[in-house]
Write a structure and sequence with these properties.
Blueprint: E1 28-29, H1 41-55, H2 67-80, E2 90-93, H3 95-107, E3 113-117, H4 122-130, E4 134-138, H5 148-158, E5 162-166, H6 178-191, E6 199-203, E7 225-230, E8 243-246, H7 249-255, H8 266-277, H9 279-303, E9 306-307, E10 314-318, H10 323-332, E11 335-336, E12 346-349, H11 353-371
Helix pairs in contact: 1-8, 2-8, 3-4, 5-6, 9-11
The chain binds pyridoxal-5'-phosphate.
Pyridoxal-5'-phosphate (PLP) binds next to α3.
Length: about 375
C-alpha cells in the first residue's frame, strides 16, 4: 500500500501529523472553543433570504474584493474596538486560519522565520510549516504570561520575520497587555532594522470575551502590526468560515499578491453579512458565555483544581499527574475536553449552563476517584 512517505512530498512535511482535534460523538462536547448557542431563528431566516438572493447570481464570480462585507466588518470594529477603521484597513478570508496563511505566504516563506510564545495556538506553527516558514518556539513564564525580557532576547537572537502574539492566548486564556505588544513590536523592528522590519500579528480570535479592551488601537501608526479576528467564536459561526484582519492599508494591498481570486464565495459573503446585521443579539450570547467562563473558573477552584486566569471562552485547568488519563476519565463520563499537550493541564470550552454543570460533575467525580 502506498503511504504518504512514498509520495514525493516536501521533506519538511515528512512524518508530520495534521491538525486534529478529535470530533467524537459524545453528549457534552467542550473541546474546540465553539460557541454552544445555535444562531437565533430570525438570523437563520435572514441568512436564507440573503443566500437565496446570492444564489440568483451564482453563474457569476463573487465580489473579489468583498467590499460590502469588509465595510460592515470595519463598521463593527469601529463600533466595538475603540478605533475608527476604514474598509481599506480590513481584509477577510475563509476563517482566520486563511488570514494567517495569507499573511505567512506574504511575509514568511522559504528562508524566513516566524516566532510564537508557547504553549499557544498550534496552527501558527503548522501554517508556518505549510508555507515553508521556519518556526521558532519562544518562551513563557510558569504562569503562562509572556516573559517580556526572554521574548525580547529570543527576538534579538533569531531575528524573525513574523511575530505571533495571541491575546487572549489559546490554550491558556491569558490576555496580553498593550505594553507587552509594543515591547515585542519594537524589539522585532530593531532586530530587523537592516531590512524593511518584521510583521507582528496579534491574534485576537477570542478578543470579544476579554475583560480588557481590544488591542486594535495599536495598529494606528504601526504599519507592521496586524490584528486578526474571527466570526467563529463570538459570532457563533464556526461553520461559516469567516476571519478578518485590520491593519494599515498597505498590508491589505500586500496580501492581494497571494490571495486566490474569488476566494470568498458569494454564499459566505451573504451569510456573514446577515450575521453582522444581528451583531447585538450575538454579542448578548458573549456576555452569557463570559459569565459561564467566570463560573467555571471559580467552581473549578472550589473543587480543588488549579486554573489559569481566563479572558477567553475556555478555561485551562489542572494540574493532573497524567493529563491524558484525566482527559480519558472525563470522556468516559460523556464529556469531551481538549488535551493540548501542555503537561498537567487540560482545556474546557465554556458551554451552556447545563453542559458546564455536567462537566463540573464529571470533574468532581474524577477528583474523588483520583484522591481515593
Ligand atoms: C487563537 C486562534 N486563532 C485562530 C483560530 C482560527 O479560527 P478560524 O479559522 O475558525 O477563524 C483559532 C481557532 O480555534 C484560535 O484558537
Amino acid at each position: 500500500m502506498t503511504g504518504i512517505d512514498d509520495l514525493p512530498i516536501r521533506d519538511e512535511l515528512r512524518g508530520k501529523s495534521p491538525y486534529g482535534a478529535p470530533q467524537l460523538d459524545v453528549p457534552v462536547r467542550l473541546n474546540t472553543n465553539e460557541n454552544p448557542y445555535p444562531l437565533p431563528e430570525p438570523l437563520v431566516a435572514r441568512i436564507a433570504e440573503r443566500v437565496t438572493e446570492a444564489a440568483r447570481h451564482l453563474n457569476r464570480y463573487p465580489d473579489r474584493d468583498a467590499v460590502e462585507l469588509r465595510t460592515e466588518l470595519a463598521r463593527y470594529l469601529s463600533r466595538t474596538a475603540g478605533l475608527e477603521v476604514g474598509v481599506a484597513q480590513v481584509w477577510a478570508a475563509n476563517g482566520s486560519n486563511e488570514v494567517l496563511q495569507q499573511l505567512l505566504q506574504t511575509f514568511g516563506g522559504p528562508g524566513r522565520t516566524a516566532i510564537g510564545f508557547e504553549p499557544s495556538y498550534s496552527m501558527h506553527a503548522l501554517i508556518s510549516r505549510g508555507t515553508g516558514t521556519g518556526w521558532i518556539s519562544g518562551p513563557r513564564n510558569a504562569d503562562f504570561t509572556i516573559d517580556v525580557d526572554a521574548a525580547r532576547k529570543a527576538i534579538a537572537e533569531h531575528r524573525p520575520d513574523v511575530v505571533f502574539i495571541t491575546s487572549p492566548n489559546n490554550p491558556t486564556g491569558t490576555a496580553v497587555d498593550a505594553e507587552t505588544v509594543l515591547a515585542l513590536h519594537d524589539a522585532a523592528q530593531d532586530a530587523r532594522a537592516d531590512t524593511a522590519g518584521a510583521l507582528v500579528v496579534v491574534d485576537e480570535a477570542y478578543g470579544e470575551f476579554s475583560h480588557r479592551p481590544s488591542l486594535l488601537p495599536l495598529i494606528e501608526g504601526r504599519p507592521r502590526l496586524v490584528l486578526s479576528r474571527t466570526m467563529s467564536k463570538a459570532f457563533g459561526a464556526a461553520g461559516l468560515r469567516l476571519g478578518y484582519l485590520a491593519a494599515d492599508p498597505a498590508v491589505v494591498d500586500a496580501v492581494q499578491l497571494v490571495r486566490l481570486p474569488y476566494h470568498l464565495s458569494a454564499i459566505t459573503q451573504a451569510t456573514a453579512l446577515a450575521a453582522l446585521e444581528h451583531t447585538d443579539t450575538l454579542l448578548g450570547y458573549v456576555e452569557a458565555l463570559k459569565a459561564e467562563r467566570d463560573r467555571l473558573v471559580s467552581e473549578l477552584r472550589t473543587i480543588g483544581c488549579e486554573v489559569t486566569d481566563s479572558d477567553a471562552n475556555f478555561v485551562q485547568f489542572g494540574r493532573f499527574e497524567d493529563a491524558h488519563a484525566a482527559w480519558q476519565g472525563l470522556l468516559d463520563r460523556g464529556v469531551l475536553v481538549r488535551d493540548n499537550g501542555v503537561p498537567g493541564w487540560l482545556r474546557v470550552t465554556a458551554g451552556t449552563p447545563a453542559e458546564n454543570d455536567a462537566f463540573l460533575d464529571a470533574v468532581r467525580e474524577l477528583m474523588k476517584e483520583t484522591s481515593a
